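hi! just following up on the protien thing from before. the input was this:
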Amino acid sequence: MKKILLLAFGLGVAIWLNYQKSVDRALQKACDGGTMEACLDLGNRYRDRYRDGEGIPQDFARVASLYEQACDGGELLACNNLGVRYYRGEGVIRDMDQAVSLYEQACDGGVMPGCINLANRYRSGGTRNLTRAAEFHEQVCDGGVMRGCTNLGNMYRAGGGVTQGFDRAADLYEQACDGGNMRGCTNLANMYQAGDGITQDLSRAASLYERACDGGWERACFEDMK
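and the predicted 3d structure came back as:
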């Protein structure tokens, strides 16, 4: 019985690998034919399989090449992904200036991951510029990505890169919370609990912690309301 199960498992793996190869071939054909989305998808597939350790030899240079082809062809998410390769030095020589340039290209085209990466780069490291970071967090927030609203709220609460404004911070946290970002709920709860720039309201704080906890933000489950 054990031998039969092992044979069945081996057959299943072989079928799965053959299927993956057939998808790769189809995407490569489409990519070679000028479909830039296929180049991006193929790059993503190779990237994810290398990371997941699926027994495929790592070739991040191939991933970077596919992203570059797609980016040059106008697929702006690929520009962001190529920027990440330059930031990490995966398949290319690490180049922070090139990473930022690619993030900007993606962000200018409305690709929010590019704006998020720009905000993160300007918030820390050699490119630190909190005013620019706040601008990109605002762009991300306005683009409907609620983590950007939470991050911008953090900057207004701390007065980093913007004029400190607790009411503005609370509004941004509430916007993020209502949009499903549980960290925004938790940060707003912190403000209500401590009376940090807004009127203290322990009942509201407890309700927000509960909401964040129920929403999967584990830290909120252990907040002490005493």
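Residues 2-32 form the longest helix (31 residues).
The mean pLDDT is 87.
cheers
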